[in-house]
Every structure is written in structure tokens, then in C-alpha cells.
């Protein structure tokens, strides 16, 4: 056999192989922002006005299967949030006389908000520490959307599943 002879190898059949995963692509989801979640979020944003009644609010919560309503003024600016918890507190204070009250009497006025650029992990931490499940997303003074702790957890679990799949593909090839 001549010295230059080399048996045919599998790599001879591939022109150029590339890797679709890297450390940065496999960990990039850990840096996800609220905006990333909003791109995948479906459904409408429902709001209520401060002059509406708790009866109207309860019907909206029931009809749309949601747990909170951002409270906006006539210009659409966020001025509060009304959650199921706010309504339950009022029920305990005024049993049998709660539903005629105005939203503005019961809503939470000091609302924790976030922006689309905020890291999801920060939002999740703030929600957990503050013991609330709904956070309005704002852009300047404008209400953009509402994220729930369920949205954040679901998004993160989906991303973790994707990361696990990518790592498995990286190992298996």
C-alpha cells in the first residue's frame, strides 16, 4: 500500500458540519425579558374604570376567567388594580353590601409595575416577595399588558424544557 492511502471516513461525506448549540444559546433563555413572554402571550387585556361597581368587576372576572383587572382612567392611564383578594377583603368588611361599592374604593392604588425590558427573573422575584400574582406592564405612562405569576412560571417551564432538549441534542448529536 502506498503511504498516501487513507481509508474512506464518514467525515469525507460531510462538506462542513456545524453545531447548532453552544453554551450561549443553551443559557440565553435564563436572561429572558418580560417582552419575550408578551410575544407568546395570547388573550385580550381587560380593564375597568374606577367609577364602575364591584358587581361589574366580579362579572368581568367571572366571564373572562381572570383574577385581576387593571384600573384605568378615561385616557387609559393606569391608576390602580383590582384583584380577587381586594374584593374578598371588602366582602369581609361589608358582608351583603359589597357589590354596590365603586372600584376606586377597593382597588390597590400603589401598583407594582414592570416594563417589557425587565428580566423575567426580577419580575418573578418581585411578585413572590410582594405576595401578588398580577403585574401590569407599562411603557411610560401607558398600560401595555398584564403578566401573571402563572404566565411567568409557564414561560420559564417551557424554556427549561427547550433547554433540556437542546442539551440532550448536544450530547446525543
From TrEMBL:
Matching CDD domains: CBS_pair_bac_euk (cd04623)
Coiled coil: none
SUPFAM superfamilies hit by this protein: CBS-domain pair
Pfam families membership: CBS
Keywords for the protein's UniProt record, in alphabetical order: CBS domain
Biased composition (Polar residues): 19-32
Signal peptide: none
Keyword Chloroplast: no
Region (Disordered): 1-33
InterPro entries named among the record's database cross-references: CBS_dom (IPR000644), CBS_dom_sf (IPR046342), CBSX3_CBS_dom (IPR044725), Diverse_CBS-Domain (IPR051257)
Ranges for domain CBS: 40-99, 107-162
PANTHER family, alphabetized: CBS DOMAIN-CONTAINING PROTEIN, CBS DOMAIN-CONTAINING PROTEIN CBSX3, MITOCHONDRIAL
Listed name of the protein: CBS domain-containing protein
Amino acid at each position: 500500500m502506498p503511504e498516501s492511502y487513507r481509508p474512506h471516513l464518514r467525515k469525507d461525506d460531510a462538506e462542513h458540519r456545524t453545531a447548532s448549540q453552544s453554551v450561549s444559546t443553551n443559557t440565553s433563555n435564563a436572561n429572558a425579558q418580560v417582552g419575550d413572554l408578551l410575544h407568546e402571550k395570547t388573550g385580550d387585556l381587560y380593564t375597568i374604570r374606577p367609577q364602575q361597581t364591584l358587581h361589574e368587576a366580579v362579572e368581568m372576572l367571572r366571564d373572562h376567567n381572570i383574577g385581576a383587572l387593571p384600573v384605568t382612567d378615561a385616557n387609559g392611564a393606569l391608576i390602580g388594580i383590582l384583584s380577587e383578594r381586594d374584593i374578598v377583603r371588602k366582602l369581609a368588611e361589608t358582608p351583603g353590601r359589597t357589590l354596590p361599592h365603586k372600584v376606586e374604593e377597593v382597588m390597590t392604588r400603589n401598583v407594582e409595575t414592570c416594563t417589557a425590558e425587565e428580566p423575567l427573573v426580577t419580575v418573578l422575584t418581585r411578585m413572590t416577595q410582594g405576595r401578588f400574582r398580577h403585574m401590569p406592564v407599562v411603557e411610560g405612562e401607558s398600560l401595555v399588558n398584564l403578566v401573571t405569576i402563572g404566565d411567568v412560571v409557564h414561560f420559564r417551564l417551557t424554556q427549561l424544557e427547550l433547554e433540556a432538549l437542546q442539551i440532550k441534542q448536544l450530547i446525543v448529536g
